[in-house]
Request: fold
Amino acid sequence: MNNAESVADVVFRLGPLAISNTVLTTWGVMAGFGLLAILLRLPINGQPSRWQNAIEAIVVAIEGAIGEVLPPASVRRVLPFVATLWLFVLVANLVGLIPRLHAPTRDLSATAALAVLVFGSTHWFGIRDHGLRNHLRHYVEPSVILLPFHIISELTRTLALAIRLFGNIMSLEMAALLVLLIAGFLVPVPLLMLHVVEAVVQAYIFGMLALIYIAGALESTESESSSSVENKP
Reply:
């Protein structure tokens, strides 16, 4: 929660590329996930460790949440993306609790990149399951007049996804900084608890919205395919 007055500071440069603290923190979170995945795959005396059991329980819980939104046949295909997105956003939100670090998700460039990733994955899963033609068909049905409205809807919801996460995490860190400046360290525990709860809630909302968008793409193509089959003589 330091340096809240500056969203992203340039740490060093690689030629024309400016590497900010947001990028470094994001790379650190990704490296941490990669290292954790490698360690969890190591066999320990032929028996799974408590950490492996805990991670398995988390994955099963996420799989159950996805299964409540998507049809069973699509759960395993979507699980790696949605689970990674959920866990990454959660850890990225919580990084702000570490002294001298800030949450990457309080930087609009980071949340915009996540939103673009959700936008691309939504169409990827739709095209992968039903083909490009069937996926794009719902943009011009029941009338081609609706095409601009569908496009505007896609763009605005992606923009809202990025701004919602950025605004909530940014305001949370700014509020925490103001409270610390006014009250000093007399109220650190409630403040930390508020940060943890808000980080979990925002990660859940972001992942759930991504899941709903993907489900919408799959359902729209499925409904279009069903209606086209029913209309055949």
